[in-house]
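User: Let's play a game. I give you a shape written as tokens, and you guess the letters that built it. Ready? Here's round one.
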């Protein structure tokens, strides 16, 4: 559904960051990391894969915010299939060890026919990240750690909460732009 004249995602991201003015200037330096990882996630959304959102305990507020706004009534796009790991597996916090994580992952594979990916937001060393780290196609906003398909932030950043909201706003704009063919996430 993309226009053959649609800009590349990296350029579109840079333009979107600059349009926001000084509030997103911190992201300009990390735009290539942002573009690469986010384009990967957007392609999965366009393939109609379900997002399974996982956060560490301190970022539960971000999870709630994303879940309540991504398919909000003000969105003028198709609904996005997104669920929280906690809504699927109420006792996820008590899951530990590789074998139990594999049981949960197997249940998800059966339920979603392998048409899902994890979006993890939080500390890299939190045990809630383990299920997402087991899959190569997970998308991360991870703290203090480099990981495959991750956008890395610093947990000690005094503006972390603001940055998470800004990232979500840019993600949502990116989602709209890719769904409506304004940008090609695969480029």
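Assistant: Ready! My guess for every position:
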């Amino acid at each position: 559904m993309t226009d053959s004249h649609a800009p590349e995602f990296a350029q579109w991201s840079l333009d979107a960051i600059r349009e926001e003015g000084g509030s997103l200037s911190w992201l300009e330096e990390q735009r290539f990391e942002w573009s690469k990882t986010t384009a990967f996630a957007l392609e999965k959304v366009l393939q109609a894969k379900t997002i399974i959102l996982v956060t560490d305990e301190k970022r539960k507020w971000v999870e709630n915010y994303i879940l309540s706004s991504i398919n909000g009534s003000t969105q003028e796009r198709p609904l996005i299939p997104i669920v929280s790991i906690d809504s699927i597996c109420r006792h996820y916090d008590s899951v530990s060890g590789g074998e139990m994580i594999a049981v949960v992952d197997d249940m998800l594979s059966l339920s979603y026919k392998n048409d899902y990916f994890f979006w993890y937001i939080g500390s890299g060393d939190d045990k809630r990240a383990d299920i997402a780290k087991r899959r190569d196609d997970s998308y991360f906003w991870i703290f203090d750690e480099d990981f495959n398909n991750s956008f890395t932030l610093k947990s000690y950043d005094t503006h972390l909460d603001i940055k998470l909201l800004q990232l979500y706003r840019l993600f949502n704009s990116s989602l709209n732009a890719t769904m409506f063919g304004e940008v090609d996430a695969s480029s």
